[in-house]
Design goal:
Strand content: 5-15%
Helix content: 40-55%
Number of domains: 2
Number of strands: 7
Strand order of the largest sheet: 2-1-3-4-5
CATH class of the largest domain: Alpha Beta
CATH architecture of the largest domain: 3-Layer(aba) Sandwich
Structural class: alpha/beta
């Protein structure tokens, strides 16, 4: 039996759900409560509480309290610090200045390309959509074999923002190498490795510091929260500079 893992929620009545929600919201107090305390807190009858206890698989209220206390303690141990993914120390001291410089480049760009693979590709799509919502000609490229060099042929004033946790993805590097000496395209990176090849070949590198996490060798579970922070900061700065320019 597991209260927090109870799977038949759809079988609970409205009264049952009121009890369930009350227990979840008062998880530390419930092991010290009597049936009467719980019924008063949830605004139901004592018999409704006992029917609920039996429905979720316990034979008595004391049995439920012992099991619930143990389960809740296990959850508290396992979920400690799960939201402490990032803080200001994850970014360089001059990150705000670099964001302003990159936003200034993007402000006058004819084409803004967000380039990434896997999870970074998903964030590239998000960034592109937000930039387009702000009125900029922006699109995302998630396929490293996409003919980007041909698409940007005979164009000028382009900015390619590459998203890569490792900054070492060979397929992405192969594409970017086509633009290293281009006078018409500026390369920018958002990466977790400031010393990586992708960071070094661009004009600006927006970086963050977070441990890489991989499972089964190939699957990257490294948090993308720092990258999203930078993307949102960059888009906000782009929007602010655009407003300031229109006011002048």
């Amino acid at each position: 039996m597991a209260f927090f893992g109870f799977k038949d929620i759809d079988k609970l009545s409205e009264v049952d759900m009121a009890i369930y929600r009350y227990i979840v919201d008062h998880d530390e107090q419930v092991p010290l409560m009597r049936v009467r305390d719980l019924s008063q807190g949830a605004h139901v009858s004592n018999s409704s509480v006992m029917r609920f206890i039996h429905k979720i698989g316990y034979s008595s209220f004391p049995e439920f309290k012992v099991s619930f206390k143990s389960e809740n303690q296990d959850l508290m141990r396992s979920k400690s610090d799960v939201l402490n993914i990032i803080d200001r120390n994850a970014f360089p001291n001059d990150i705000e200045k670099t964001i302003k410089l990159v936003a200034h480049l993007m402000l006058d760009a004819d084409n803004i390309v967000f380039f990434g693979m896997g999870g970074s590709g998903a964030i590239a799509e998000y960034a592109s959509r937000q930039a387009a919502s702000l009125g900029f000609n922006s699109y995302a490229v998630k396929d490293p074999f996409y003919p980007l060099i041909q698409q940007l042929h005979n164009t000028s004033n382009n900015v390619i923002v590459t998203l890569s946790v490792s900054g070492r993805t060979s397929e992405i590097l192969e594409t970017l190498n086509n633009f290293v000496n281009s006078p018409d395209t500026i390369l920018v990176s958002i990466t977790g490795n400031i010393e990586s090849p992708i960071a070094r070949i661009g004009r600006y590198a927006l970086s963050y510091n977070i441990p890489e996490t991989r499972i089964h060798k190939y699957y990257d579970l490294t948090s993308q929260v720092p990258c999203v922070y930078i993307v949102d900061g960059l888009l906000m700065e782009l929007h602010n500079q655009d407003i300031d320019r229109k006011i002048e």
